[in-house]
Specification:
The protein is of the alpha/beta class. The chain has four helices and ten strands. Helix 1 crosses helix 4. One of its GO terms (cellular component) is protein-DNA complex. GO terms for molecular function: DNA binding; DNA-binding transcription factor activity. Belongs to the LysR transcriptional regulatory family.
Amino acid sequence: MPRIGYAWSAVGRHTPAFQRRWARTHPDTDLHLVRVNSATAGLTEGACNLSAVRKPLEGRRFDAAIIGLERRLCALSAEDPLAARRTLRLADLGDRVLLIDRRTGTTTPELWPPGSRPETEDTRDIDDWLTVISSGRGVGMTAESTAHQYPRPGVLYRPVRDAEPIAVRLAWWRNDPHPSTQAAIELLTALYRGE
């Protein structure tokens, strides 16, 4: 049985379709999604045998395949003056407090040019991150999958036009790949392509 770990948002809007298609095309192989807020989304903890991650895993113990790309979105309070805009630019956020999860997050101040980098504040997980954002104390930058997985009253998500997209990877133990690895890669890649 493949257990796919994820730290924050699984595969976003593709998550329900992935689960349904998997059940239809692999009726004898149960699939479970497991949320583990760690850098490997549960691989090193033994919670899963595959993981959906949005930054490369360190070390030669792991292998991964890029299954798709996601836009970067800014998460901000609905009360923020920038919430009235349809899209944002990195320069719009340079004077804000940027909330980051150093273990699993994809955004660091280095996304901004030197001299215009935002101040940062650490958060521990998605709920902490969203709670601080809804209060207006800071903003976040995240993959678009977070907006699909975690709509929250008081929090809006806006595309950031000049921020490069985030690669979504399916990762596994290099010396012990699960028998369903290739099938999962193919199905997830097709979903990200819109097939």
